[in-house]
Amino acid sequence: MEIADLDVVDAIRSTMDELSHMGPDDSFVDLDIDSLSLVEAAVILSNRFGVRVDEFELADAGNARTAASMLTEKLALQPAV
Questions:
Q1: What is the pLDDT, as a whole number, of residue 18?
Q2: At CB < 8 A and 24+ separation, what contacts does 41-45 make?
Q3: Single pTM value for the model
Q4: 63: which DSSP letter?
């Protein structure tokens, strides 16, 4: 299953009103997303897509498009249930 960048954007936007203008290529740094918000985003994404992601991985990804690719890769590595 491939996770689309807009799915990541929508998941983050759905609980963070201040990021309603966020696009898939917008840098998390440029959006002033602090470490607490990255923790919140990581929890949202982990719950939404069923794959564990932490705030450090999101910070390294830098934007929603790269985060979507990372989540897709992590999902592909999970054993089938």
A1: 86
A2: 41/12, 41/16, 44/11, 44/12, 44/14, 44/15, 45/8, 45/11, 45/12, 45/71
A3: 0.90
A4: S
Q: Please give the distance of CA 71 from its chain centroid, rounded to a whole number.
A: 8
Q: Average per-residue pLDDT in the chain?
A: 92
H-only helix segments in the chain: 5-13, 35-49, 55-61, 64-77
| Residue 25 token pair | 């290529």
Is residue 78 within 8 A of residue 44, CB to CB? The reply is no
Average pLDDT over residues 29-56: 93
Integer Cα distance of 33 and 36 in angstroms: 8
Q: Which amino acid is at 55?
A: E
Environment class of 80 (CB within 10 Å of its CB; exposed 0-12, middle 13-18, buried 19+): exposed
